[in-house]
Amino acid sequence: MISLIDPVKGFWTAKGHHQSWLALQEVIEVIGYNQLPCAQAPDLYHPNTNEKHFLQTVTDACKKCPIIKPCGAYALKYEKEGIWGGMTASQRHKIRRAGRLSQ
Questions:
Q1: What is the CA radius of gyration of the chain?
Q2: Other CB atoms closer than 10 Å to residue 22's CB: what's the count?
Q3: Contacts of 78 (CB under 8 A, 6+ apart)
Q4: Of 45, 77, 78, 99, which has the fewest beta carbons less than 10 angstroms from its beta carbon?
């Protein structure tokens, strides 16, 4: 049984990278990979462009995803590239930087 603990409270970030990835994969298995927007067109989530309209379209698709919160929490901790949890790499970078400045 998988417990979907609020990622903001540290479930995803308290574990190591590999364990966090496995935990995210378990959630995906429960939900079903084919239910995720990124499963329909994975290349769109690792774009080679910073074109604002394109990025907005892709991040908007994430808003319909059932795992946006754990995906985003995982990405804030570990992912430097691509669109994860409805955030671009530069958005995640700004959030990380803001968190370091507020500490």
A1: 14
A2: 11
A3: 17, 20, 21
A4: 99
Question: Mind listing the pLDDT tens digit for each residue in 5-57?
Answer: 444 444 444 456 677 788 888 888 988 888 999 998 888 999 888 899 999 99
Token code pair at residue 25 = 């994969």
For residue 33, report the phi and psi dihedrals to the nearest 5 degrees: -55, -35
pTM to 2 decimal places: 0.76
Axis crossing angle, helix 68-78 with helix 17-31, rounded to the nearest 10: 160
Question: What's the length of the chain?
Answer: 103
Q: How many angstroms from the chain centroid is the CA of residue 61?
A: 12
**Beta strands per DSSP E along the chain:** none
Q: And the tokens for 96?
A: 């990380």
